[in-house]
Amino acid sequence: MRPALSPHPPSVDKPPKAQRTTWIVAGVIVVACLGALALPVGGFLLWMYAGPDVDEPRAAADQFVSRLESNDDAAAHESLCPAMREKVDLAVFTAAVERLGRPVSHTTGEAGFGNEAGTSAFVTVELTGRTGRTTTLDLHLTLGSAWQVCDDAFA
Known about the structure:
This protein is an alpha+beta fold. It is built from 5 helices and 4 strands.
């Protein structure tokens, strides 16, 4: 004769208390590590999306080069930072622009900040001269009352 099968599954014993405590401690450690990582990652994301906007220095660099293209060297010279305006007068500035090859068109490329405060930036511009020759410049801009070009390329 066969033993009758019980309609109820056998009961499962709960894990011993020591094993359960180990899992609880491991879970607390994982949560603590995730919490510790969330602070710097969250801070970086906040700075990245709510911090200074790189579009402003990019627009200032674009305006500076557009002034060079339209032969408005006086306005472009005024877009230089005060230290560069003191160092380079308008005649020297115009000569430097001609030496580099006066642009007839340009493409504004990558831009990024040079410091955490967001008061220094670098913008890459590709200039196309009258002869079709292209020159790539990494313009350095600083934030005073507005974004200004502060680059030795025009000295």
